[in-house]
Amino acid sequence: MAAAAAAMLIMIPTAAANASVTAPAAPAGFKAAPVNLATDPGASVQTITLTKGECTALNHSHPGTVPNCKALLYTDSGNHEALPAGTAKAIKDASSGYWYWWGSKEECSLYSCHYWSVHLTMDGVANGSHVYQWNVGCTASGYDTSCAWHGYLYNGGGWPHYAMQFGENSNSCIGPYNIGCTGHGMRQWVNDDGYLTGYDHW
Fold it and tell me: pTM for the complete prediction?
């Protein structure tokens, strides 16, 4: 990945809105149904390599958690789903052209997600020309592992990226009280059709 693109992936404001289009709003209090990716038959799984700093911190707190810096990446998503009941219509009743999408990514120890995991969730609406977020979340499991931040960028999609980006930052520490912490991040692009596309982590 080019250096400029990598820098863009790392720097994510909490929110950015596209004021030219107003999308359907989520029903009050709406949250996507939780998904256990490790047991979800629809989830895909692949082996990834973590950074040296991340696996050093993890293997110090839980020896053998990420052998050879390897971990599992689970992914699942849904698209072109009906808008949930109670969805607020967009300006000019544009909601008829939108559908609901959701995505879920989780990085886990090879042995168990209970040893170590970071889970990024996201959902929203899309219509092929724009993509909007409704929710973005982060959960962490494992000794002295915690989510530090989660958010999104380019809400609304369209030109020039024709996509938006979601992300989380987390910390894994070698001791309590935030001693010897190493940062970890996940970034996921979602295109204007609501499909999960490019993914990066460090």
Answer: 0.84
Alpha-carbon distance of 179 to 2, in angstroms, equals 33
Within 13 Å and on the Cβ side, how many CA atoms surround 94? 15
Q: Which of 27, 5, 25, 29 has the alpha carbon at shortest distance from 17?
A: 25
Total count of residues recorded for the chain: 202
Burial of 102 (0-12, 13-18, 19+ CB in 10 A): buried
CB atoms within 10 A of CB 139: 16
Given this model, what pLDDT does residue 178 score? Answer: 62
Cα(17)–Cα(122) distance, integer angstroms: 16
Cα 169 to Cα 12, 201, 202: the distances in Å are: 10, 10, 10
Edge-first strand order for the sheet with 116-126 is 44-49, 70-81, 99-108, 116-126, 131-142
Which amino acid appears at position 45 of this protein? V
Task: Decide: 23 and 90 in contact? Cβ < 8 Å.
Answer: yes
What backbone torsions phi and psi does residue 18 show, to the nearest 5 degrees?
Answer: -95, 105
Distance CA 69, CA 145 (A): 16
Tokens (6 digits) for 13: 């404001």
- Candidates 109, 129, 134, 131; CA nearest to 119 is 109
Ranges of the chain with pLDDT below 50: 1-20, 93
> What are the pLDDT digits (tens) for 70-105?
999 999 999 999 999 999 876 554 555 899 999 999
Domain regions of the chain by residue span? 44-82+98-201
